Structures are given as structure tokens and as C-alpha cells.
Amino acid sequence: MNSNRREFINRSALIGASVMLQPWQYIGSQPLYAADEKPKMGLLLGKEDLPRIRKTIHHPRFEDFWKSMLNADLDADIKFLRDEIDLYNHVFHLLRTWRMLERSSFVAMVAEDKRHLEVSKRAIDRILQYKRWDYFLEGGEITIGLQRAPETTIAMSCALEWIGDSLDNATKTEMEKQIAEKGAPACYQTLFGMRHPDRVRGWSFDPESDYAFRYDLSRWPIILNATNLKVIPICGLGMAACLLHDKHPQAPRWLDMALQSARAFAPMYGSDGSYDEGVGYWGYTTLHMTMFVEALYRTFGTDERAIINFPGTVRHALQMSMPTIGNPNDAVNFGDARNMGDTSVAGWIAHLKNDGVAQYVIEEMGDIRSHFGLIWYREEVPVRKPGKELHDVRFVNDWVISRTGWDTDSSVLAFRSGGPANHEHADRNSIIFKAYGERLLHDPFNAAYSNTLPLWVLRHTEAHTAVLIDGKGHQYHDGSEGTNPSWAEAWIINYAASDRYVKATSDATEAYRLVNDNVGKVLRTVVFLKPNVVIIFDKVSLLNNPVPVQARFQINNDDHKGKGIVSSDRFTIERPNAFLRGVCKGNNGVVLTSDVIDVVGDMTADLYIGQEKIEKPDIGKYPFIQAENPADLNHAMVTVCAAQKTGKAAGTITIRRDQNRWDISGEHDGMQVQVTIHDIGDVPEIVVV
Length: 689
Fold this sequence. Notes:
CATH architecture of the largest domain: Distorted Sandwich
Radius of gyration: 27 Å
CATH class of the largest domain: Mainly Beta
Number of helices: 18
Distance between the termini: 75 Å
Strand order of the largest sheet: 10-11-12-13-22-17-16-15
Helix content: 25-40%
Structural class: alpha+beta
Strand content: 15-25%
Largest sheet: 8 strands, antiparallel
């Protein structure tokens, strides 16, 4: 067999497809490289990287994470692997096992730690005992791999390289055999189904799996084609193809599918690097895309490292960050994205592009939750702290973010327009606002993934700082197919930014009209006067049935320290370190009230957001302030919110209306406020003096 790697990757996939999968005589029978071509690099790291990694583990940014791996409770791990594991539990037990393997094989390599090596070997033995590596089937019999199979394939591939010298030949051969039988084919079948949904013979849950929830999977090949659950099998299949490229006849076919699928997925990132599923899923998705293109480059020299806008996407993550008191990892949580998550991939981008902003992200923002941060970090890349040029952004997906800086005390305004996406909520035209370290206009966390759980209600418009028409929000699905996208769309129809202010208008008419044929227009205009005043102008027109319209302002009370107070046309939202004073006027006389979303039902079950276990919520009440404009065909409401530190005085701001003109004036925190809104059409004319 010709071992030239560049020629190998360009072979026709038909050649690989035409070779029948034979018994496992291929493994061990052919060298990975020709005698004159010795490997210099592994899939993701080589032995030459170890001195640098051993230095990085003592860096202040990485030391705590390294210690958490090194000092993991290995006795508990061994007990689990020996006595507790259920080989039909993929969701939690296989997840825990492959994570043990990846962690401990890495630590065993870097620290030459024998106990971690022991745990690695036990984890390998248990993984090899699983009948399947995932809990989804096609046609009731063929395993498809959405997460567990590709994740396990990646962990086993890494372990082979990292601790292979400490494993016997029989174990290594069996690992490679099962990667090729339980891992790669499951990933291939998934990607084939996404490419050719008309050929899928029905996806379903494995009846032998003990996963508690069931969804209608009939449209999943279409739905998941535009989600992070495509990138994970891309990475798993690509890693298997790179690992076994000269050992298995199907490897060219696997590689072809992985590479074509990666290229097809790349437009799910915006041209500016934005990612619709939210920043909490950004790290997980981008990490796996990066692992694949890095392994591809190191194995074959094929350079796909510009497959997406990597410098742009790390800036997207940075701009979505929202460090908050008590949660430095906080982020704009549109949809299910609870926080920034792991930013390890920023280290790879920083090194690849000599990108100082990416280096700032890897050193300062989010969490380090992955050993890949240790693998990719290079201390010699100079840090460049982001400046004002990144303070204001309208992403190509029509999310608007405006901020005053990057630290805990900085103000951040987030305005959710744009189209549907996986993991979304019914949150079009909603607002999140943070100032002085506190979330003052909130988007509640912990919405359930399953529509059978009471916290599913937090996905609805009613749980967001958004508009309701006669108490009801815009279109959203019923959850029977999972957390897939709805049909709701909103679009930014006007945007302008300066050092002093940002203004944007979003049209969510179609999102509401999908469920209410009485809707004429639903428009929201936001003006952010930096650093601490937010003006919201809501305009709703109805066609023939006059009904009331409400604007809600959600209160962060996850720690029982949020409070809402209403007095006449004014309201206050209080948090321990800051408060927000609001005044609201409408064309028909607004009525302000305070209320709660009362979540009822079983709140005792374990709650998982994706793969992350969440502490059980100990409250079932989510408070909000509501402004209601009485029944009419045409509604216009102006709300002015001014933030201030606790203990300091708020200024006085007034709203005066004269027909279609709204004058907002006053003083707050030393800033003179003088804004006029001329309601002259879909996009109001706004004058800021």
C-alpha cells in the first residue's frame, strides 16, 4: 500500500467503499508509516510537546484545573468502574467512563502517574464491554452515534496514543478493532443519514438503553444536521480515520464523509464567527471542529484550519461574555446557553494566528474545563486586551450586544433578534441587561430539556423580558422532538452605534403572527445610553380585535435576593449590589404589576442541561414586573430603565407624550438624559442630545 499521506487522503472514497470490511487481520498487520517515514506528531500532540505542557500545568490560569485532574477521587472512580457501572446506561455511565479515560490517560502521560494509568486501563476494559457505544438505532438495529459513540471514539483514540506504550498488544488491537466496529460506523451512519435523510430507515432509541426520556426522532436527521450534534460525529469519525488511515480499508471512506460533513456544517457559523446555539454550546462545538481539522493537518498535511472564521468566532465568544458578581463565567444566555463554558479552543486559535485577543480569552475569560487548553496554550503569544472596537456588535445572525468593558462592573446590553436555532427559547425581541455586577433585566436559567418537566415553561416568551399579546407569546414548538428550532423569526431593521449610545430596532411580527392572525406589527426599539440607561420603545398593532399588550421585565431571584417593587407608573428591581429604576408610559395608560411565574410539579428530579448536571432549583417562583397597555388596536409603550449601585441615589427621568412624539428627559448618575422618539413608522426617528 502506498503510504504517501497526501496521496492517501485524495484517493477516491469509492475505493474504500468497494473493499468489504474483513475480519480484524488488518490491525497490526500493516505499519502506520513506511520504514523511512517515522511519525513525528500524534493526532493532537507529540512527545516533543510534553516539556511545554509540563510547564503549562503550573501556570496560574491552568494550575487549579490541572490539580482537579491530578487529585481526582480515583478510589471513587475505581469503585464505580468495578461495582456500579451499568453497561446499558450510556447517558451518564458511559459519559463518566470516557471522561475518566480521557482525563486519566492524559494525566498518566504528563505526570507519569501509575494510579491514573490504572484507572485508564479499567475504563478501557469497561468501554470494551459495552454492547454499543450509543443509545440510538436506525432501522431498529444499526447503531447511530450522536454523542457517546463519537466521544468514546475520541477518548479511545487519544488513550491509544497517550498511554499506548503501557498497554499490551492485545488490548491495543481490541481498542482499534472496537473503534472501527462500534465507533466509526456509528458516526458514519449518523452523518450519512444527515446527508441523505430520505434514505434513513427510521431513527429510534435503543430499547435496551435505560434513558428516561423519549422523543419523536422521525425528523432528527434533518433537525440535527444544523446543530452541534453533527460536529461531534464529524470529529469522532475523522479522528478514527486519521488513527486507522493505513490500518483499515474503510478509513478513506470515513475521512471523505467527515471532511465533506465538516465543510457542509461550516456555514452554521456566521461569516463573522457567530454561532446560533449560544456561547455555552460554542466551546463544545468549536472544540470538536478544531480537534478534527488539527488531526487532519497533523496526519495528512491537509489544511482545513480556515474552515470557519476562527479569529472571528473567538471574538464572538468574548463579546457574548458577561462577567457578573458571583459568576465570572456568566454570559448572555440566549436559549439554553447558561454560561461561557470552556474556552480552551482559544489557545489553539491564539497560537495558530498569533492572535493576542484570543490569548486574552484563553487567559482571562470563561473556564478551563478541558485538557486541550493545556495542549494548545503557548505562553509566548502576546496578550492584547480587547478595546472599544469590540464593545458594540450586530452579529450577522442579528443578535445585538453593547457593552462598556470586559470586567465585572462593566455594563452589558443584549438584544435578541434573529432566526430560530437549536437550543433556543421563545425569546424574540427580549433583552438582558447587566450593570455593576448584577443581572438587572434577566433571562432565567435552568429551562428543562424535556417538555415533561415543569421547568419547560421557562422556555416560553412569558419567562423573558419581552412582549406578550393578550398574555401570550410568539410561536414555539411543543417539545415533542426535543429542543429543536421553532419557526419564529425576528430581524434587526435598524442599527447604529457610537461611543455614547447604541440604538436598534427589531421586527418580530412574523414570530407572533404564526400563532395569532390578529397581529399587524410587533416592533421593539432599544436605546442604550452608556453606561446605565436603557430605553425600550414597544410598538404593537392589531388588525381587528382590540386586546391588551404586556411588556415583562424578569428579575434575577435564583439566590432569593431579587425583589420587584411597583408604585404608580414606576418600578424598581433590586439586587444586592445594584438596582434598576424604571418608568413606563403607554398611549392608553400603562398598569404596572409585580407577579411570579409559578413553576409547579416535581422539582426533585435530577436536572441536566445537556451533559451538565445542575443543582436542583430550590425555588419554583420566578418573579417579574409587568407593564400592561389596556385593550386597543394600536399600542405604544416607552420604558426607561436606569441602573445604579446599591447605596447611591438614582436620578429622576420623566416621559412626556405629545401624539406621536415621546420626550424623555432628566438626570441620572451625573448624566443628562434628553432623548426624543418620533413614532413615524416601523423605525422611529430617535434624537439623542
